[in-house]
From TrEMBL:
PANTHER family: GLUTAMYL-TRNA(GLN) AMIDOTRANSFERASE, TRANSAMIDASE. Belongs to the isochorismatase family. One of its GO terms (molecular function) is catalytic activity. Signal peptide: none annotated. The lineage of its organism: Eukaryota, Fungi, Dikarya, Ascomycota, Pezizomycotina. InterPro entries: Amidase, Amidase_dom, AS_sf, Isochorismatase-like_dom, Isochorismatase-like_sf. It holds the Pfam family Isochorismatase. SUPFAM superfamilies: Amidase signature (AS) enzymes, Isochorismatase-like hydrolases. Residues 24-213 form the Isochorismatase-like domain. This is Amidase signature domain-containing protein. Residues 280-715 form the Amidase domain. It comes from Tuber borchii (White truffle).
Length: 733
């Protein structure tokens, strides 16, 4: 095998089709039993003319195998309806059955030999066995002919960064070409593979495909299966030749060794080659034992024998190495505000310790994807703070220097990843808790748009602002953060702030345009608050952004500054009190609280904010959010920007300094983060360089922020920056 170029070009109609592997997906339309097997809906519709549609199945198998070998995204669609047919319009339900001289003895929903026709959950509704989706492949149920109507396919494709689609399926004249037309309207470049699509009337196929590529590719391209497979062949494994039978038993092979890397891709490749997750978990616990501050990282570490036993059970459940779940054997940690059934959740506050009967949705989802949970991590009490110095369970320090803070409130989460004790950590972010500690430990911290990932089963700090966040290794980088987010995001009816499908603004896909983007910066007065090292590294980082298509624009920094002040200077801080058991709880439990947390809560109570003041601040927050979205983040506005770029924090304090002045330093650390959740932005902190402090290398990080719903765009730009500076980023020069 050899590496493929970034862009693949194949012969096609009306001219050559070029697609970038990094943003291309396979989309297979409606390869369902109901459309392909005898006695299904298609059999009834076509008058028993299934020859052509059955012939495409082995061809679709070949293209599936190629995309699976290359680990490229694969999407399947299934047309069908809810059991009560409430999503099936009467024009579709009754059209053929009511036609004069019809041969349709049955309609959608009627019982058939494969179950109720075109009804979700029935045997006939599912995909044929030969093309059955493997774990990690996305199946999109659609009620119409086009795959974009009344589905979240667009959100999925945009979330995964897809711009180009290779398309196959049935039927050509109906659902395949309808979907390609819909995709074209949304900006995707599509190529239908001729041998991978068919219909019930073969005379319709050629004109249907001709209409797609007519007029210089009005709707897309058409190519052939041999052409595509030939272009992909260099990266595909050669067909294996059976070993000769020498009539003696071969010695057992040596189990693969683990190279110690924790990125999602490296672990997946190692597991597919036969590496045991037991080997990884055993090695990780050795690292944990050897790490000097492990006790301050974990509030509760899963017993090693239990983790090994769980890894062994994974191997037994998933013996097929070609069909592993997406996060098979990937070790992760949880911030100890996130519930795991039967395990105490502390919020780093002993009076609030409880044992939940239900796990959080995020934990359950990760376990279903094959990940291995290894422990609960330390945090600032009540998830309140940006220093990591407010926990009764110890003070985690930065992985770079034990004299410097880890950042908070997700302190243990960041250190667990920075010390390479886990592939990723799930934390929370209300005021920067998923970004500041990421920056102080040289890892990537991703805070997606609130409501894109379920918060159910997580203890609240400020419920209307709280988000889950993801921390990943610098080697895994933006790619790992994006993959994790895509695997776990989705609407949750149990989360009152969960975003419903289609509720967030989605861009027109830029498949062919120049990769240009616009950004704004904090004003010089704000950047002047940074330490000299941070200031120099920040301007050094942004100075090269033009190399990757960046264009700086003037932005109204005052809007962000004003929003940031609302979080703690106004009434919004009182929402933290709303998360407490009752109004007298602080007074009753004051001796059990961390002194700094006690002071913050008592000050808020003594201030006595009125309901009128709270509503004024809520109105102000809404107004600022609207203004930012209709000006800076509005593509049709002259001051439009894709992202705001800021230092993740203004400086990196010593633990000793924070202990002397805990509130003022903490407040300064939020200069570039406090406004993010108030304005419902998404944000990612990425390593951007190092500097020397007392002969020790220290990390620097910048954060990219974008409008809520622009997650994929923010991730794309952060990935471009990551590619520019490389893993670990540039050092101070």
């Amino acid at each position: 095998m050899e590496a493929l170029p970034k862009n693949i070009t194949i012969e096609a109609k009306p001219y050559s089709f070029t697609f970038p592997l990094s943003s291309t997906a396979l989309l297979l339309i409606d390869l369902q039993r109901d459309f392909i097997l005898p006695s299904g809906f298609g059999d009834i519709q076509s008058g028993t003319n299934l020859t052509e549609v059955t012939a495409v199945v082995p061809n679709c198998v070949r293209i599936l195998q190629a995309f699976r070998e290359l680990e490229l995204p694969i999407f399947h669609t299934r047309e069908g309806h809810l059991p009560d047919l409430s999503d099936c319009p009467s024009s579709k339900l009754n059209r053929q059955a009511s036609a004069p001289g019809t041969n349709h003895s049955k309609v959608i929903g009627d019982p058939g030999e494969l179950g109720r026709l075109l009804v979700r959950g029935e045997y006939g509704h599912d995909i044929v066995d030969e093309c059955r989706p493997k774990r990690g492949e996305i199946v999109m149920d659609k009620p119409g002919k086009g795959a974009f109507w009344n589905t979240n396919l667009l959100e999925e494709l945009v979330g995964w960064g897809i711009t180009h689609l290779i398309v196959g399926g049935v039927t050509t004249e109906c659902c395949v070409t309808t979907t390609v037309r819909e995709a074209n309207d949304r900006g995707f470049e599509c190529c239908i593979i001729e041998e991978c699509t068919a219909g019930y009337n073969n005379s319709f196929k050629a004109p249907s495909l001709n209409m797609i590529h007519w007029s210089q590719g009005l709707f897309g391209f058409v190519s052939t299966l041999p052409t595509l497979l030939k272009a992909l062949a260099p990266a595909l494994p050669s067909p294996s030749v059976p070993a000769p039978d020498l009539d003696f038993e071969s010695p057992p092979s040596t189990p693969p060794m683990w190279d110690g890397r924790l990125t999602l891709a490296s672990l997946r490749n190692s597991y597919k080659s036969g590496l045991s997750p037991v080997t990884v978990i055993t090695s990780l616990y050795t690292r944990i034992d050897e790490y000097s501050q492990a006790k301050s990282i974990f509030i509760r570490l899963v017993d090693q024998s239990a983790s090994i036993s769980y890894a062994e059970s994974l191997q037994k459940r998933f013996p097929d190495l070609t069909n592993l779940p997406p996060l098979y054997g990937v070790p992760f940690t949880l911030k100890d505000s996130i519930n795991v059934a039967g395990i105490p959740t502390t919020l780093a506050c002993p009076p609030l310790i409880h044992i939940p009967s239900l796990s959080s949705k995020i934990y359950s989802r990760l376990i279903s994807l094959g990940a291995i949970y290894i422990g609960k991590t330390n945090l600032d009490q009540f998830a309140t703070g940006l220093t990591g110095c407010r926990s009764p369970y110890g003070i985690p320090a930065s992985v770079y220097n034990p004299d410097y803070v880890s950042g908070g409130s997700s302190s243990g989460a960041a250190v667990s990843v920075g010390a390479e004790l886990a592939s990723f950590a799930i934390a929370t972010d209300t005021a920067g808790s998923g970004r500041v500690p990421a920056g102080f430990n040289g890892v990537v911290g991703w805070k997606p748009t609130k409501g894109t990932v379920s918060f159910s089963g997580v203890m609240n700090a400020c419920e209307s602002l709280d988000c889950l966040s993801f921390m990943v290794t610098p080697e895994g980088g933006v790619k790992d953060a994006q993959k994790l987010w895509n695997l776990v995001r989705g609407y949750d009816p149990d989360d009152p702030y969960s975003k419903t499908p289609g509720s967030l603004p989605l861009p027109i896909v830029n498949a062919l345009g120049e990769k240009k983007w616009k950004f704004a910066l904090p004003d010089r007065k704000a950047v002047a608050e940074c330490s000299p090292e941070y200031r120099k590294l920040f301007y050094q980082a942004i100075g090269s952004l033009h190399e990757i298509g960046g264009e700086v624009k003037e932005g109204d920094w005052g809007l962000f500054e004003e929003a940031g002040k609302l979080l703690y200077d106004g009434a919004l801080v009182n929402e933290r009190l709303a998360a407490l058991p009752d109004d007298r709880w602080v007074e009753r439990e004051k001796d059990e609280l961390h002194p700094v947390i006690r002071e913050i809560f008592q000050n808020a109570l003594e201030k006595g904010v009125s309901a009128a003041e709270a509503y004024k601040d809520l109105r102000k927050m809404t107004g600022l959010t609207r203004k930012v979205n209709t000006t800076l983040f509005n593509p049709s506005h002259p001051s439009y920007i894709d992202v705001l770029i800021v230092p993740t924090a203004p400086f990196h304090p010593r633990i000793s300094a924070v202990l002397k002045d805990p509130i003022a330093i903490n407040s300064r650390l939020g200069t570039f983060t406090h406004f993010g959740n108030v304005l419902d932005l998404c944000a990612i902190a990425v390593p951007a360089g190092h500097y020397m402090e007392e002969e020790k290398k220290m990390p620097f990080s910048i954060t990219f922020l974008g409008r809520g719903g622009s997650d994929a765009r923010v991730l794309e730009i952060a990935s471009l920056f990551e590619g520019l500076v490389g893993v670990g980023a540039r050092d101070l020069v």
